[in-house]
Design brief:
The protein has six helices and ten strands, in the order αββααβαββββαβαββ. It is an alpha/beta fold and about 190 residues long. An eight-stranded mixed sheet has the order 5-6-4-3-7-8-9-10, with helices on both faces. Strands 1-2 form a two-stranded antiparallel sheet. The structure holds guanosine-5'-monophosphate. Guanosine-5'-monophosphate (5GP) binds next to strand 2, strand 7 and helix 5.
């Protein structure tokens, strides 16, 4: 998606350790015009699927998912990071390793908000090693619900998540795929044929 790629090129900052900072328009300050265009693009890509719910993960996925949800007219559920153990069995939970914080954490979704009747579009801001997405897919499967598609804003194509998730035969689309980035020159290369 050209608008997103242009913004990444203009405002993205490449940090050591394969981290792309996009705080000025996506992860801290949010450019709602951009979010609207991303929402429309997700609708174009997934509009033929019987989606009745969008699932994302806190915190950075929530804004993108909420704006996109207006084009699908469906509710958004976000997986919550949680410290407590699930004693009552009223939540689905999974373990995720954070790429940016380099630690394991548990995320949960209440059983009230996800069931076998749901047809889910998963949305997130970044795809790196694929751990967050695998966790979300795991939660959808635990609920007996169907993953209708996965929409990602920025995929780092030089990390393994994209191929891991595509091997699972799910309908994954990333709006921008970064194939290379250099923390010394700041240069970012995008994949042409997405
Ligand atoms: P994964 O689980 O695919 O390794 O990482 C996905 C999650 O890590 C995303 O939800 C995102 O919050 C965070 N993340 C991974 N790589 C980057 C990055 O380069 N920049 C930023 N800002 N977040 C990232």
């Amino acid at each position: 998606m050209k608008l997103l790629e242009d913004m990444i090129r203009e405002k993205g900052i490449v940090k050591p350790g394969n981290v792309l900072k996009v705080d000025s328009f996506l992860n801290h300050q949010m450019d709602i015009n951009l979010f609207n265009e991303m929402g429309k693009e997700f609708k174009r890509l997934f509009g033929d699927r019987p989606i009745n719910k969008i699932l994302t993960i806190e915190a950075s996925g929530i804004g993108i998912a909420c704006v996109a949800a207006q084009y699908f007219n469906v509710p958004v559920v976000f997986a919550k990071k949680s410290e407590s153990i699930n004693i009552d069995g009223d939540v689905y939970s999974t373990q995720i390793t954070s790429f940016t914080h380099k630690r394991e954490y548990q995320v949960i979704v209440s059983k009230k908000y996800l069931s076998e009747e749901d047809h889910v579009l998963i949305i997130d801001d970044f795809l790196a090693n694929g751990c967050a997405l695998q966790g979300l897919i795991d939660i959808v499967q635990s609920a007996g619900a169907t993953v209708e598609g996965i929409g990602i804003a920025i995929e780092k194509g030089f990390q393994e998540g994209g191929s891991l998730i595509r091997e699972m035969n799910v309908n994954l689309h990333s709006l921008a795929i970064v194939d290379a980035m250099n923390d010394e020159t700041g240069e970012i290369t995008f994949r042409e044929d997405k």
